[in-house]
Specification:
This protein is an alpha+beta fold. It is 42% helix and 23% strand. It has a 5-stranded mixed β-sheet with strand order 3-2-1-5-4. It is globular. The protein starts with a helix and ends with a strand. This is GreA/GreB family elongation factor.
């Protein structure tokens, strides 16, 4: 994808987020039961929109700009720091998640940690028997 195509994709994403944000929050974080999770997700989405708006500026004004952080729709290759096993996932909206197809929701524990992560960063993910550390090795957009 060239920068103009990425820009169009990102603009569409912003529109979709704006239109579906309340319904998504209501579906996955109903009030009052999941107030804390809902608030942290609202903050994550605000941070995401802010970074995406900056990204749009860069895509418009810097012809050689390269995406260096995880966005919804990107495919991310991560490597487990303990086992050295690499895995690739596409970060998607919750209603498109399909772990068997390698698509994880940005609301899942791993998806939340990966969203906005820069390339070569380390992310920590809580698992039933502790915590796993992963390194973000590659980020690509559709």
């Amino acid at each position: 994808m060239n920068n103009l195509e990425i820009r169009a994709y990102i603009l569409g994403q912003l529109v979709h987020l704006e239109e579906s944000k309340k319904a998504m929050l209501d579906a996955y974080f109903p009030l009052p039961d999941r107030h804390v999770e809902r608030k942290s997700t609202e903050i994550l989405l605000e941070r995401y929109v802010h970074r995406i708006e900056k990204l749009l500026f860069c895509l418009t004004h810097e012809p050689d700009f390269k995406l260096t952080f995880v966005v919804i729709g990107s495919t991310v290759t991560i490597r487990n720091k303990q086992s050295h096993v690499a895995e690739s996932y596409k970060i998607c909206y919750p209603d498109h998640a399909d772990i068997d197809a390698g698509c994880i929701s940005f609301l899942s524990p791993l998806g939340r940690q990966l969203l906005l992560s820069p390339i070569y960063s380390t992310v920590n993910v809580a698992v039933p028997d502790g915590e796993c550390e992963y390194v973000v090795e590659c980020i690509s957009v559709p």
